[in-house]
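Saturday, quiet lab. Running sequence design on the structure tokens for the scaffold JK sent over.
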């Protein structure tokens, strides 16, 4: 019967650069996310900052590229601009950069809200409670109230 021995103290520790590159090989990360992950792996902040600066200079890490990927992925999931903006901010992306990434996506949020509503519901709702349910759904997806009210009026009008 074989078992894994605990790592010995003389096992070479992976460098912060190698750990960051291994993470970036799987998906895009914001600088903030990389800092958190590397800190959790036991690397000192004084060792992490210069490594991340070098990765940015080499073009291996980019908050702009991360924001573009994040926006694209969340639009495909049916999320609205408020939820996407919040997600970017929680991952350490500057508010200006986050808004630029949303604007660069070219998404028509009114149409996106209509599509999200049509995927989830079969009609606009006949009663006030049913319409309120649809509005709450769109709000939970991160759509602004103007998008949600537009979707309620327009999404099912061509049936």
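Result came back. Writing it out in full:
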């Amino acid at each position: 019967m074989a078992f894994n021995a605990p790592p010995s103290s003389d096992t070479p520790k992976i460098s912060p650069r190698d750990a960051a590159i291994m993470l970036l090989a799987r998906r895009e990360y914001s600088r903030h996310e990389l800092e958190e992950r590397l800190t959790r792996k036991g690397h000192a902040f004084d060792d992490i900052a210069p490594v991340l600066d070098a990765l940015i200079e080499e073009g291996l890490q980019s908050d702009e590229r991360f924001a573009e990927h994040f926006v694209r992925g969340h639009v495909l999931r049916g999320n609205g601009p408020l939820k996407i903006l919040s997600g970017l901010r929680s991952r350490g992306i500057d508010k200006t950069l986050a808004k630029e990434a949303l604007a660069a996506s070219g998404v028509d949020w009114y149409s996106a809200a209509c599509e999200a509503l049509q995927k989830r519901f079969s009609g606009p709702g006949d009663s006030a409670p049913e319409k309120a349910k649809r509005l709450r759904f769109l709000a939970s997806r991160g759509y602004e109230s103007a998008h949600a009210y537009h979707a309620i009026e327009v999404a099912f009008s061509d049936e």
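Notes for JK: The first helix runs from residue 16 to 26. The chain has three domains: 16-60, 62-107, 108-159. Ask whether to fix the surface positions before the next round.
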